[in-house]
Amino acid sequence: MLRLVAVSLLFSLVGCATAPPAVQVQSLNPVASVAFEADGRVALRYQAQSSTANLHWSHRIAQDVVTISSPLGSTLAVLTRTASGVQLVDSQQHIHQAQDSRELTQQLLGVRLPLEYLTYWMLGQAVPDLPHQTSLDGDANLAQLQQAGWAINYQRWQTLAGMNIPNKFTVVGEDSELRMVVTHWQIEQAGVWQP
Question: Is the confidence at residue 155, as pLDDT, over 60?
Answer without folding.
Answer: yes
